[in-house]
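Hi R.,

Here's the chain you asked about this morning:
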Amino acid sequence: MSSFWVGDLVRLRGIEPEDWEAFRKFDEDTDDMRRSHRIDHPFSAARQREWAEQASLKKPDGDRFQLAVESLADGVLVGSVSAFFLDYRAGRFGYGIALGSEHKGRGYGSDAVPLLLRFMFGERRFHKCEAGVWAFNEPSIAFHRKLGFTEEGRLRDHEFFAGRHHDAVLFGMTAPEFAARHPYPSEI
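And here is the predicted structure, written out as tokens:
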């Protein structure tokens, strides 16, 4: 049996209540967290358990969702992907990926993101995916370029954290650009 949600290295799946400990560990790495977004105050173990429980029971909200990224090799939770900022009229959506620092550089993101994009483009009929990356996050900029995203602009002094304002680099990829780089399976 094959699954749409399984790549070469990862499986995308719903968040389970027992995932709370892995997500808490990811959140505790504030140096890593700062590369992708602002740092929030620490949550208690009880709050993290409650979040995972609620996430596991959350009813679908259209095409806005968050999925766990699990390593096929050992079944370990390595991060999450999400779809958000939906614009049905224009056919655009935003996406995000967060991997635990110990899981980066192993190809998990390069496997997970095309699974998400194949779903949003090929099953939900969106035309364009957009992503924002902090200008200082060179690994993420290189990652998006490698996947086939095009740099579309820069928002200067867009967000404040770590004591100063930071630029955001905007990336985009259309459905035809994705299909040219990541062909759909031919057996369908």
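One quick note: The mean pLDDT is 90.

Cheers,
M.
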